[in-house]
Amino acid sequence: MHQGFDTTFLLLYIGLVFFAAAVAGYWFSNKLHHRNTSQLKKAQKAELTKKRKLALRASHAMLGLAVVLIGINLIQYTSGKYSIEKLNYQAEIQVVNDKDYGGGHSEAPIRYEMKIPTSGTHSPHDLKFGLYKERPPYENLVHNLEHGDIIIYFHPQANPDIVKRIEELTKYRKAGAGILGVPNSDLSQPDQIVMTAWTKTMELPAYDESKAGTFIYQYINQGPEKIPPEVRQGGGTM
User: Fold this and answer.
1) How confident is the model at residue 5 (pLDDT cuts 50, 70, 90)?
2) Which residues does 3 contact at the CB level (< 8 Å), separation at least 6?
3) How far apart are CA 51 and CA 33, in angstroms?
4) DSSP 3-state helix, strand, coil percentages of the chain (rounded to 5)?
5) Nearest C-alpha neighbor of 174 from the set 147, 193, 152
6) Residue 182 is inside which H or E element, if any?
7) Residue 43's pLDDT band (boundaries 50, 70, 90)?
8) 78/142 Cα distance (integer angstroms)
9) Under CATH, which number does the domain 89-219 receive?
10) Is 127 left (phi over 0), alpha (psi -120 to 50) or beta?
11) Do the beta carbons of residue 113 and residue 100 sit within 8 Å?
12) Where are the domains of the chain?
């Protein structure tokens, strides 16, 4: 962990050095461009133009390197910050094993046996990961469960601080599976949380970070149809 942090910091430092060098190069090139050349001979003017072009090319190259290095740094930082291993709280959780109603596809509206379905015939179109302001159709949400996604349902009148914490959880990924935070008026109490995976349901009377994290850690990417991460980036690909 410490070595990874050092490497990430080093990439950021080098990227910032290249960025500073690029800025200095652009400044130098601009200074050459506005230099008074009226007293210079033709050969001297040509040499000055050559220097300015070289400074510009070097600045472009250094800026490109800076963008790449800083970009790699951000990717490494994000992937580390939202590592699924951080959710392995090993909390004691009570999970209901729901009946498997199959997983066929249909464009027609579906009448589910369960109030909050965790399997069954569903839409051929899944949804993007992230926090939603309104509940999408269950037909689409069940498709996400089929791909191993986790859905966190919260009451539309839930505490905004809890909603923000749920939104933070939606940034975690494992392989091609992710997390959706969805308001749901089918929940009876403002503090209630319901978490679902394929054929799995966990109800909480109030939000519990350790239990929510443990559920995600245990059941994410456990659906019957797994999609490679390079195909299913961010969900909503099928």
Assistant:
1) very low
2) none
3) 10
4) 45, 15, 45
5) 147
6) strand 179-183
7) confident
8) 28
9) 3.40.30
10) beta
11) no
12) 2-81, 89-219
